[in-house]
Specification:
Layout: H1 17-30, E1 35-38, E2 48-51, H2 58-65, E3 70-75, H3 82-97, H4 104-123, E4 126-129, H5 135-147, E5 151-154, H6 173-185, E6 190-197, E7 202-205, E8 209-210, H7 211-216, H8 221-240
Parallel strand pairs: 1-7, 2-5, 2-6, 3-4, 3-5
Antiparallel strand pairs: 6-7, 6-8
Helix pairs in contact: 3-4
Length: about 240
């Protein structure tokens, strides 16, 4: 049997008319517009944005209100078949990360959302990320997005024990992306730390930092990732916690 060729990644351009209508009606009702504090000034089209997930509210809220168009990294399970999507939503997102109780209501939410997920993920310009060798494809696809003069938004927090206001750790995949792009283009991309709180309806965009500056200091990928984690947390301490 002839092996089916993998479909080549296409840089997500304009969203469909149907998603635009859904976004500007249903999503805006579910996720109210936050106050935006922009410490970075004018934002370029191309860069890397590091944001907290803010439970399950971060990605759709950023898609609605972040000032620059971004393609986003998402869990690879959400790009699989219906069973894969439903089990990830129920067991990982709702129960493990958001602390929901197992039972009919949680299972029904996961079942319902798994039906519409492909439509929403396409509209939000999501890309799958993997915990294995397939991550190389995420880096290649992200480089194509950057080459098309579009930003990449990444949610790098370790949420294995649930989503927290103060983030404990960043996975270093975004550092690998910045390093790969620098090797290929000699361009040191601006990386913006961002903190979003749905409770306070507040989004804070921090000033750009550059991975190569940390590389020159002799820091490894994990140390660099932790520095950016600290930067995102500092936005929380300075602008969100006491608001």
């Amino acid at each position: 049997m002839k092996k089916q060729k993998k479909k080549e990644f296409q840089v997500p351009a304009k969203t469909s008319v149907f998603y635009a209508a859904f976004k500007n009606t249903v999503m805006r009702l579910l996720f109210r517009k936050p106050k935006i504090i922009n410490l970075a000034g004018e934002l370029p089209k191309k860069g890397i944005i590091l944001a907290n997930h803010s439970a399950k509210s971060g990605p759709p809220s950023f898609d609605l209100y972040y000032p620059v168009t971004c393609a986003k990294w998402g869990a690879y399970q959400m790009f699989g078949n219906f069973k894969s999507r439903m089990e990830y939503l129920r067991d990982v997102l709702y129960i493990q990360k958001c602390g929901k109780k197992p039972g009919f209501i949680t299972s029904f939410k996961a079942w319902f959302m798994a039906i519409f997920n492909p439509f929403v993920y396409r509209g939000m310009r999501m890309m799958p990320t993997y915990p294995d060798a397939r991550f190389a494809s995420t880096l290649r696809d992200s480089a194509k997005v950057l080459d098309a003069d579009m930003s990449v938004m990444i949610f790098p927090e370790n949420s294995g024990e649930g989503y927290k206001d103060v983030l404990t750790e960043f996975f270093p995949g975004f550092v690998m992306l910045a390093e790969k792009y620098h090797r290929a283009t000699k361009e040191d991309l601006p990386v913006y730390p961002v903190y979003y709180s749905i409770k306070k309806r507040l989004m804070v965009i921090g000033k750009a930092l550059f991975v190569q500056n940390f590389v020159k200091q002799g820091l490894d990928r994990y140390q660099i990732a932790q520095r950016f984690c600290d930067e995102v947390n500092q936005l929380y301490f300075d602008y969100v916690r006491d608001v």
